[in-house]
UniProtKB/TrEMBL annotation, chain A:
Organism: Salipiger bermudensis (strain DSM 26914 / JCM 13377 / KCTC 12554 / HTCC2601)
Family annotation (InterPro entries): ABC-2_transport_permease, ABC2_TM, ABC2_TM_bact-type, ABC_2_transport
GO molecular function, a single term: ABC-type transporter activity
Name of the protein described by the UniProt record: Transport permease protein
Membrane topology note: Multi-pass membrane protein
Automatic annotation (TrEMBL), chain B:
Annotated keywords: ATP-binding, Nucleotide-binding, Transport
SUPFAM superfamilies: P-loop containing nucleoside triphosphate hydrolases (SSF52540)
Name of protein: ABC multidrug/carbohydrate efflux transporter, ATPase subunit
Matching InterPro entries: AAA+_ATPase (IPR003593), ABC_transporter-like_ATP-bd (IPR003439), ABC_transporter-like_CS (IPR017871), ABC_transporter_ATP-binding (IPR050763), P-loop_NTPase (IPR027417)
Stretches assigned to the ABC transporter domain: 4-233
Top-level lineage group: Bacteria
Organism, scientific name: Salipiger bermudensis (strain DSM 26914 / JCM 13377 / KCTC 12554 / HTCC2601)
PROSITE patterns for this protein: ABC_TRANSPORTER_1, ABC_TRANSPORTER_2
Molecular function in Gene Ontology: ATP binding; ATP hydrolysis activity
Length: 256, 310
């Protein structure tokens, strides 16, 4: 891989991260506030009535789901915006005229978006630790799930950003598809709390596998077998990589 | 070996529009070529293909001996592009934006060079200013700085002076002269004949996706420098008087109009003498008018030839 333009990748990565640091206050404060709000509303108000889910206090139970919720939305929005914005304002010309191949562009943008999502996930985890006692039974699995989620959804976001022809389309998929899937994916409840018919429906939601596996890494409890969860997230990452590869081969939406 | 070499380059967009119809073009190292042409002639498409923004439908393009498609890394490393549209990240600081460009081209960080470029373009004081706070002319300077930041050997300037003030235009011409002295090859597109006149070595005319001519500036300017004196006579004549026969005069409009071609760049145009000779020959003049052949006339002529040949 010595033929790769690593300086170019680094330049993209740095530039994208600078955008993030320019709005550090917003990047840092907004997840802290929203997480705190979730704890006030769900943890305290609802948690006061639910008490425990499968032996874990409700406040702690929602932590993995909350992290996933933010990480997934942030990875998608950062990556999609990161590549859409240059398309929108025209600075993409420089990227296309530089001695960079598509893979290098992807590594730069997706790497930066995944880093931001990881940062926000960590901030939420730390914030949550002020509200509830958190145990992490399988720290390695926890990190693996977190990294794969950051990466795969940043890839998905990149694809969305390439596909989107306007700002409405840019927000359409996250709004109409991703947010409902994440909310219905068991962020705030266990699938076993649903009526059995809905449990079957829930199994068609890919996010269920993610949150279930992530929660297992924390508390050792899961809605679906953890192996299946790993398989699902690995499969999703591969799918995104496959689409990226196809775009790479065809030059879709980048060069006329 | 030519620095830039295009062979039978065609581009048909998905819409079916044929933007380039088999363009051949060779540009030598260190040369400044001005591409003139009306809007939609294919100037920007041509530049975009060489720079990697648009894929050619067929034909071959070499820059510095490297195929633009097959060896895009080697080819693009040599090329700097100043686009026509002002496309800049509004929230980024000037210095960072210029450094990013150098990084994208895989060049190691060089703050001394960036400083030199920013100073040269009067941008050094603005290095920490967000781009959105700059005037239009300053933004164009940033585009130039970005293109120069990675030390290109071939520089494309797409309508660099469209809508810029006189000061920037002068600066730009000076920079172009500097770059040429360092052996940089420069291709610029323009609407303005004065611009081509000021800086180009050769001038290419492009229309409807075809290169109509590529000519040394000097010879083209000679053609552009021709003027016509039209003398309307009070009384029509059937033939030129004997005394005027050695002059290159034409009779038009049934003997009512005398037409005299002359070269404004010549030391003596002989206009005063001609008027004296006319009056000596007993011809009374009702009116005089002059017409300069413009770039537009040349376009019209060339387009007519193009259509006639088709």
């Amino acid at each position: 891989m010595s033929g790769m333009n690593w300086r170019g990748i680094w330049a993209i990565y740095q530039f994208e991260m600078m955008r993030f640091f320019r709005t550090l206050l917003q990047s840092f404060v907004s997840p802290v506030i929203s997480t705190s709000l979730y704890f006030v509303v769900f943890g305290t108000a609802i948690g006061g009535r639910i008490d425990q889910v499968e032996g874990v206090s409700y406040g702690a139970f929602i932590v993995p789901g909350l992290i996933m919720l933010s990480v997934i939305t942030q990875a998608i929005s950062n990556a999609s915006f990161g590549i859409y914005f240059p398309k929108f304002i025209g600075t993409i010309y420089e990227l296309l005229s530089a001695p960079l191949n598509f893979l290098e562009i992807v590594i730069g943008y997706v790497g930066a978006a995944a880093t931001k999502a990881l940062f926000i996930g960590t901030v939420i985890l730390l914030t949550a630790s002020f509200f509830v006692e958190i145990q992490i039974l399988h720290p390695l699995a926890m990190v693996a799930f977190l990294l794969l989620t950051c990466l795969s959804f940043a890839l998905l976001g990149f694809i969305l950003g390439l596909w989107a022809g306007n700002f409405e389309q840019l927000q359409l998929v996250p709004l109409l598809v991703v947010t409902p899937l994440v909310f219905l994916g068991g962020s705030f409840y266990s699938i076993s709390m649903l009526p059995s018919a809905w449990q079957t429906v829930a199994l068609f939601n890919p996010v269920v596998y993610l949150i279930s596996g992530f929660r297992w890494a924390f508390f050792g409890i899961a809605d679906v077998p953890v192996g299946l969860s790993l398989l699902a997230i690995a499969g999703f990452t591969l799918l995104c990589l496959g689409v990226i590869w196809w775009i790479f081969r065809t030059g879709w939406r980048l060069r006329s | 070996m030519a620095m830039v070499e295009l062979r039978q380059v065609r581009k048909v967009y998905d819409s079916g529009f044929e933007a380039l119809k088999g363009v051949d073009l060779e540009i030598e190292k260190g040369e400044i070529l001005a591409l003139l042409g009306p809007n939609g002639a294919g100037k920007t498409t041509l530049i975009s293909i060489v720079c990697g923004l648009v894929m050619p439908s067929s034909g071959s393009l070499m820059v510095g001996g490297h195929d633009v498609v097959g060896e895009y890394r080697a080819a693009r490393s040599l090329i700097g592009l100043v686009p026509q549209e002002i496309s800049l990240e509004p929230f980024e600081k000037v210095g960072n934006a210029v450094r990013l460009s150098r990084g994208l081209f895989g060049k190691p960080r060089n703050d001394a060079l960036i400083e030199e470029i920013l100073r040269r373009l009067s941008l050094w004081d603005k290095r920490d200013t967000p781009i959105r706070a700059l005037s239009g002319g300053m933004k164009r300077r940033v585009l130039i700085a970005k293109a120069l930041s990675h030390e290109p050997e071939v520089l494309f300037l797409d309508e660099p002076t469209a809508g810029v003030d006189v000061e920037l235009r002068r600066d730009m011409w000076e920079i172009v002269a500097d770059l040429k002295a360092r052996g940089v090859t420069i291709i610029l597109t323009t609407h303005y004949i004065e611009e081509a006149e000021a800086i180009a070595d050769r001038i290419g005319v492009i229309n409807q996706g075809e290169i109509l001519l590529v000519e040394e500036k000097a010879s083209l300017m000679k053609r552009l420098g021709r003027k016509e004196l039209r003398i309307e006579l009070a009384e029509p004549v059937t033939a030129l008087p004997e005394t005027l026969s050695d002059r290159s005069l034409r009779l038009e409009e049934e003997g009512r109009m005398l037409v005299y071609d002359y070269d404004t760049s010549a030391e003596r145009t002989g206009l005063a003498k001609l008027m004296a000779e006319l009056s000596a020959a007993g011809l009374s003049v009702r009116d005089v008018d002059t017409r300069k052949s413009t770039l537009e006339d040349i376009f019209v002529d060339l387009v007519k030839q193009q259509e006639g040949a088709a």
